[in-house]
Write the structure tokens for this entry.
Amino acid sequence: MNNPYGPVPPPPAGGATSTLDANQKTVLGCGVMAAVGLVLVLVAGACSPDPVVKESAVPGPTVTVTARETVTAAPAAAMPEVVGATFADAQRRTGALTDDGMTAYSAYADVDLPTDHSDWTVCFQSPAGGTAPLPRQTALTVHLVAAGTKCPAEQGTKLHKPKPAPKPKPKPTPTPAPDDEDDSSSSTGGGGGGSAYYRNCDAARAAGAAPVRRGDPGYGRHLDRDGDGVACE
């Protein structure tokens, strides 16, 4: 059988025997080359950039997401303040709050509300301003005064003061019938003639007529204090 590695060299001179045979040398050379190749591979791996790791997506369970629309509740309607505004403006500001509209009355009990009161001023309102929530079926009412008229302190007050009742005329005092006895005039007495009148007893005495009896000229009840028919006794 022929040697595949070629002829075997002769032994060295002097008769010394070689420590390694040809097969061992060949194996040693191959081992050295393999070690060097491994070192080169390690050095190349250390100098190369980081390897890119590809991850494959793993199918998972299907998740269904339902989108829900967020609805913001509308703020509750509130009654606006309309006192001081005209009726037309109050209607405009409250028209969207109720289906029944707005009812108007006169603020004064003795003043009638005309058919056209759009320019009349609001003095009182119901519900009051700021009332909330305000259902659409709420009845809105206002009390008005004519433009330029002052609002009353309370609704239903009378604007015009009542006229005072005329004072009754006093009944005339009846005049008493004249008393014949009080009449100071009488028929003419002797001596002088004509009627006589004495204001008091001094005048009767000065005339020389005292005492004056009933029926004598100048007799009067104002002279006869005791009423016995004899005056200026």
Remarks:
- Helices lie at 22-47, 87-94, 201-206.
- The two ends are 221 Å apart (CA to CA).
- Residues 14-19, 177-194 have pLDDT under 50 and may be disordered.
